[in-house]
Prior knowledge:
Oligomer: heterodimer
Largest sheet of chain B: 8 strands, parallel
Number of domains of chain B: 1
Number of domains of chain A: 1
Radius of gyration of chain A: 11 Å
CATH class of chain B: Alpha Beta
Number of helices of chain B: 9
Order of helices and strands of chain B: EEEHEHEHEEEHEHEHEHEHH
Number of strands of chain A: 5
Amino acid sequence: MKVVFNGEMTQLNTPNLREFILGKGAKEPFAVAVNGEFVPRSHCAEMVLKAGDSIDLLSPIQGG
Amino acid sequence: MRENTPLTIYGETFSNRLLIGSALYPSPKIMQESIVAAGSEIVTVSLRRQNSVAAGEDFWQLIKDTGLTVLPNTAGCHSVKEVVTLAKMCREVFVTDWIKLELIGDEYNLQPDPIALLEATEILLNDGFKVLPYCTDDLVLCQRLAALGCEVLMPWGAPIGTGKGLLNPYNLKTIRERLPDMTLIVDAGLGLPSHACQALEMGYDAVLLNSAIAGAGCPVSMAKAFSHAVSAGRSAYLAQAMPEKEVAAPSTPTMGMPFWHQ
């Protein structure tokens, strides 16, 4: 089963969103969206991923 | 003399009127020094994918160390859905309900999409955000944004990163006159300190800029120059400029002039 993580196709090793992003090395601070919808941090542990989902993990950068 | 009031953004007051961006500096050290030299109290930031080159906790730590108020932006978004999602992600990461709402409508000049901007602004205001919309210098658009409940508007001076200054002073003056109680900030397009001074002279409450400082030969010196220009422009606005005239009028008294009409 595969998903898209930060724009790249990858194997889904666990359907749990929180476990998935931690497995991807997520470092604080970050925020998560699945299929273009924001997922609050408090909901990540309950969210179940499915094949084809697109997960975005964002962190602070410079901005104008 | 006009009464001097502090810059007010959704109930919070600030003494400095130069909001500064954190991008494009030659190094993190120069970014920090430039922000200090500008005297800014508000700095803009953004969010990107964590595996991108630019993202990192080091940058965020640098910003936190400045102790400044953070204004997250939604730069790069092209749809209402994108901008709403990114705003919510910013709120969680930066722990603020402020959002500099950027919603691009045209890739060539990075012009904000006025129609989608209204829709996104309404959604975010209803969700508890304090929206600072980056918009064009269109009076009716600004009036509509004000009617939605925005307490701050940020019309552009010129397209982002061009450094062209205030391309349409008439439009900007009209917005100032028609929305006298609105906090107005010129955002984008400034290149020279004189541009910032001009905005403050016409009664704008502040300017927000990034490229003009970060892209200068010496960003730290340019940050100081902008700081002086903003102070000068604000002082001039408070002092109230003389009325412009079409006909010359001598400043030196003519009474007692020797050789008069000989």
